[in-house]
Amino acid sequence: MRRCIVTRDSLPKEAMLRFVLGPGRELVPDLGGRLPGRGMWLSARADVLERALSRGAFHRAARGQVQLPPDLRARIETGLKGRIRDQVGLARRAGQAVSGFQQVREWLQAGRAALLVEASDGSLSERDRLAGRRGTPIVAVLSAQELGAVFGRDHAVHVAIAPGRIADMLVQEAGRLAAVSGAASGAGT
């Protein structure tokens, strides 16, 4: 459990964003939670991030001046998308992911898929036709080109992830991304 520097709520680390100070006192998002230094924790929500920036919460938490990057929100979103892409790649290399409509449908029918990763620019009707009424969680934050790069293709629209820690991490990261970007849903059913 960590305490948010804005809301003062104690939340699990998985629902928060960690920031540290770089050598020049610049604010660095530590999305993996592994950088050295005293961490400043913030609830992973767009409104909390805006309040932290406008009210000087980082300056107070660091007890001094902090260099705030002008594109902080974009850095966070890009970093979270990169973490999602890395997790899908890890699942692929571990044999816990398949791509392509037919293979994904076979995994769904066999009950081997715990999560669907769909291209954000893919067809909603195809997504509905594939997922049906199974209730399988869906993450749709990467484009078809970004998903395809993970599988060594030009594009990939449908990806199934096997049950396990990687699927759980993908849902968690997609939730943080959706909350920070202010999107209605990054992970859904």
TrEMBL record:
UniProt xrefs under Pfam families: YlxR
The superkingdom of the source organism is Bacteria
Q: What is this protein called?
A: YlxR domain-containing protein
Query: Per the database record, which ranges form the YlxR domain?
Result: 2-77
Question: Which organism does this record belong to?
Answer: Teichococcus deserti
